[in-house]
């Protein structure tokens, strides 16, 4: 039996070989190699790290990934009326320089991996007072049909003072792959960004995303996160409300089935007075799947008159499904209004009985109740075309999960 040291050495050799294979096509090789060394020193996060307590990436430590060999683009469907920007297996038109200042301190394993290998994704700069006339729809498609592959993207979004934009970042794929995405967002004074992150991975896929946001004076960051994938997914939101009147509103929805695992981690830091933040999460877990949501709101000493609210709710469709909800508050001054709450349970038998007594069959009744549970998030999506697409995807995902639950109950 091979020792752990031998396995680790083989994995490191594999990453070095992959880096040497693609380094020539990427800029800033020295910075990337430093990041690679940092990644190999720290490795993938383990459950011993509090921030990764519920998400186990240990299986990736022994995996060997190849560079994608994309020969054809899959059939993609950008949102009607949006400006499409498409990446297939991390392939993009041109690279952008990375500087040492962009390396995170301390160096996180996943972040370092992305820094070492990421191709340039969306690079959007909106000028002062400019409003984009239509949404930008970024589609990141990955595949690992013949062998396990890995690809990485780094996106930059910057809105100047009083600028407005809508950005949709959609991640999808099939087969076995590891994909990482980093998004850097900066909002100037009075800027408004509506950001939509949609994830639909395959069962054998691992998707790791990190969104870093800096919100300026009287600026508004509005985010929607929808996850209906079947693989392992983790999304970190790190939002800093940097100036007076900064505002952040995050609504998230996750539906897991089979053995899917979805982990959403949100950190909102109020650094200045009169800030406002809202977190709303709805999750549905079926079969043997697992949902994790960890939301922390930190209010600094000088951030007086902060107004914050966090509401988390999860619905379990199976006795084998699991949900881990963790709302947190850290408050360092006494002139605030902050609240949070969480609830986890099953479908209300009285509501189910009521629908059945009105002539609705059981499967339809369960579908109606589960759809009603997530309506608050879906109906809040401000783009009608995107809202319709998400409704259909969520309904399809729920029908599959409910059908699996019925089959499991009948088999038992």
Strand segment count: 15
Largest sheet: 15 strands, parallel
Question: pLDDT average, as an integer?
Answer: 87
Helix percent reads: 10-25%
Q: What is the subunit arrangement here? A: single chain
**Alpha-beta content class:** alpha/beta
How far from one another are the termini? Answer: 39 Å
Q: What fraction strand?
A: 35-45%
| Low-pLDDT residue intervals, each spanning 5 or more residues | 93-106
* Order of H and E elements: HHHEHEEEEEEEEEEEEEEHHH
Number of helices: 7
Rg from alpha-carbon coordinates: 22 Å
- Global geometry: globular
Essential attributes:
412 residues, alpha/beta, 15-stranded parallel sheet, globular
Structure, briefly:
This protein is an alpha/beta fold. It contains 7 helices and 15 strands.
Give a description of the structure.
The protein is α/β, with parallel strands linked by helices. It is 24% helix and 41% strand. It has helices spanning 4-22, 29-42, 58-61, 109-117, 349-357, 362-378, 384-411; strands spanning 83-88, 119-126, 136-159, 164-187, 192-200, 206-215, 220-227, 232-241, 247-256, 261-270, 276-285, 290-299, 306-316, 322-331, 336-345. It has a 15-stranded parallel sheet that branches. α5 (349-357) packs across α6 (362-378). The longest helix is centred in the C-terminal third of the chain and has 28 residues, at 384-411. The radius of gyration is 22 Å and the shape is globular. The protein starts with a helix and ends with a helix.
